[in-house]
Design a protein that fits this description.
- It is found in: Cell membrane.
- The structure is a single chain.
- The protein is α+β, with helices and mostly antiparallel strands.
- Helices cover about 40% and strands about 25% of the residues.
- The chain has four helices and six strands.
- The longest helix is centred in the N-terminal third of the chain and has 20 residues.
- It is globular, with a radius of gyration of 17 Å.
- The relative contact order is 0.17.
Length: about 150
């Protein structure tokens, strides 16, 4: 009985540790985007877009994932919502009315990189949560990855 109880406690402890490891950091979001920028420069945007849409684990890590837009804001790659592909949705705000998609394009066309805060449905929890997204322009595409706060 003690062995069963100990095994249950151990598995609960490990489950908690695993859940904590799923919380991505801003540094991880930046690293993912910079890795994608290097891949776009190296193997081309089409290869990265294909991998993102196929949920390649290089670009899709649960809550942390890469999104690729063209310079007009149209989605070229999104691993958690394929319905967005080909759509810009720049005029669609988050739940608080923030035009975060337009802000991504503005950052890319302006400074070339930066952060956007907004609210979005977390694909892991299914709930709308606060999110911050790192945006980086690479050639003629906008690369971004975000974390839930």
């Amino acid at each position: 009985m003690r062995k069963i109880f100990s095994a249950v406690l151990l598995s609960l402890s490990l489950a908690g540790t695993s859940a904590m490891a799923d919380n991505a950091t801003k540094e991880q979001a930046v690293a993912l985007v910079k890795e994608a920028a290097a891949a776009v420069k190296g193997s081309g945007k089409d290869a990265v877009i294909k991998e993102v849409n196929a949920k390649d684990e290089k670009w899709f890590k649960g809550e942390l994932y890469l999104i690729v837009l063209d310079m007009s804001g149209a989605h070229l790659a999104h691993p958690t919502n394929q319905k967005l592909l080909g759509k810009s949705m720049l005029d669609l705000p988050d739940v608080d009315g923030k035009m975060f998609r337009q802000e991504r394009v503005d950052i890319a066309k302006g400074k070339g990189e930066g952060w956007v805060d907004y609210k979005y449905k977390n694909p892991q929890s299914g709930k709308v949560e606060d999110k911050t997204l790192y945006v980086f322009k690479q050639g003629d595409v906008i690369l971004s990855a975000g974390i839930y706060k």
